[in-house]
Specification:
Helix content is 36%, strand content 22%. It is α+β, with helices and mostly antiparallel strands. A five-stranded mixed beta sheet has the order 1-2-3-4-5, with helices on both faces.
Length: 187
């Protein structure tokens, strides 16, 4: 394992006009994030399909999708990136995004560290680095930081509890497929 670095990218990029944001990310970074987020999506799909016996073997997000997400999506306030420096190159190994539509409630999304870098304290380092920057940026203004954990992902839940998060609600969802009745035509 090479030298591990955590970089927090915030308003210096995400406050720029959308067309200017792209100039702040090199192609290797975008491709590395695409692969990581593809890994995350594959992991989520494996969990969802575990009961059905089907497994997603390869789900790589195209770099352009990642570029659109991190560079153009409204509401992204921070990108926190864990990278490994190896042979003079920085290779993304983990990341998470912090989104917000207002100035008080923030949501962490896509918190992911590649398998071989887990349980080494790197996720905690990522969060601590982000929190330090976040507090500096906010000054004395209060805020609420939220995130979602998939049901049954006990390791993630334990990790977030160690960081200081607490369960405050349960989210329920109903998936409607073509041909399934909706509440409106059940009445």
């Amino acid at each position: 394992m090479g030298k591990m670095n955590v970089k927090v990218i915030g308003g210096e990029v995400f406050d720029l006009p959308k067309r200017e944001r792209a100039k702040k990310f090199d192609g290797e970074t975008v491709i590395g994030l695409a692969v990581m987020l593809g890994d995350l999506r594959a992991e989520q799909e494996r969990r969802e399909s575990a009961g059905s016996g089907s497994v997603c073997l390869c789900c790589i997000l195209p770099p352009e999708d990642v570029k659109r997400y991190i560079l153009l999506k409204n509401g992204v306030r921070y990108l926190v990136m864990l990278s490994e420096t190896s042979r003079g190159k920085e290779i993304p190994r983990g990341c998470f995004f912090v989104n917000s539509q207002d100035d008080y409630v923030f949501e962490i999304t896509e918190f992911y560290v590649q398998d071989r870098y887990r349980r080494k304290g790197l996720g905690k380092k990522m969060f601590a680095t982000f929190l330090s920057r976040f507090r500096k940026d906010r000054g004395n203004r209060g805020a609420r930081i939220a995130l979602s954990v998939a049901l049954g992902n006990d390791a993630a839940e334990a990790f977030y509890r160690q960081l200081g998060f607490a369960e405050i609600a349960k989210v329920m969802e109903m998936r409607l497929e073509k041909g399934n009745p909706t509440l409106f035509n059940m009445v």
